[in-house]
Specification:
Helices cover about 50% and strands about 15% of the residues. The protein has a five-stranded mixed β-sheet. Helix 1 runs parallel beside helix 6, helix 2 packs parallel to helix 5 and helix 4 runs antiparallel to helix 5. The longest helix is centred in the last third of the chain and has 29 residues. The radius of gyration is 19 Å and the shape is globular. The protein starts with a helix and ends with a strand.
Length: about 240
């Protein structure tokens, strides 16, 4: 009887964890997805933004992977990790069946930067690689005040990593972290419940998005995500 009560409590907590982010997101306004570059914080010149858009469009055409650069005026009190995964899910960056989207997020007021990676690209752009890109390509330029250069160099490095150009990120070991098996049986069952519910939710969102967008990347000639999903993976940094 006690085990049944514990399992019921685990299910309740799992549902609460899954539903809470959506309820919180409804209260926080996210920037609108207007293109491959969303420069809300006005860090980029017109010509630099155009060059970035051209670069991202070419990569998307070649690989099918969707990379979006976004600068925001404020994180509204949230961590950049929370903001990143919520923005990725809200925008649906990447293809629905491949989850091959990436966000480069810059929050100058909080002096934070993050690379947010969709489920399908976590193997190509690991946490370790993203961290090196942030520390070696982005933050040094930011610290000198040249945020535009940091964004451009960071974007180039992200695209190079996604294309498998390992020489651009030499010396980076693959991220081999794995989830340890919980020692307590009830906790293990709880994790299984969470994973099962999350998987069900992802498939539901995919079918919904693919149906509403006809499986495409754009609507009415504009720009939009393709229904990709994010789980909060990759790396952040500050300057």
């Amino acid at each position: 009887m006690r085990l049944v009560i514990q399992l019921q409590a685990g299910v309740f907590v799992a549902l609460w964890i899954l539903l809470l982010p959506g309820a919180v997101a409804a209260q926080i306004q996210l920037p609108e997805l207007t293109g491959r570059v969303v420069d809300e914080a006005n860090l980029l010149s017109t010509s630099t933004e155009a060059d970035l858009v051209e670069m991202l469009q070419a990569h998307e055409t070649e690989t099918g992977q969707q990379v979006v650069v976004v600068t925001v005026q404020s994180l509204n009190g949230r961590t950049i990790e929370e903001f990143g995964v919520e923005l990725g899910r809200a925008w649906g960056i990447g293809q629905a069946e491949q989850d091959n989207g990436v966000l480069l997020i810059v929050a100058p007021n909080e002096r934070q930067v993050r690379i947010e990676v969709g489920y399908g690209l976590e193997g190509a752009l690991t946490d370790a690689k993203a961290s090196v890109i942030i520390q070696n390509e982005i933050i040094p330029a930011f610290r000198t005040g040249d945020r535009a250069r940091g964004i451009v160099d960071g974007t180039r490095a992200i695209l190079a990593a996604l294309r498998g150009e390992a020489e651009t990120l030499s010396g980076i070991a693959e991220d081999d972290q794995k989830f340890a098996i919980p020692p307590v049986l009830i906790f293990f069952i709880f994790i299984l419940i969470v994973m099962s519910l999350r998987s069900f939710g992802r498939h539901g969102r995919r079918h919904s998005r693919s149906g509403s967008r006809m499986g495409g990347w754009s609507s009415g000639g504009g720009f939009s995500g393709g229904g990709g999903s994010f789980g909060g993976g990759c790396s952040s940094g500050s300057w």
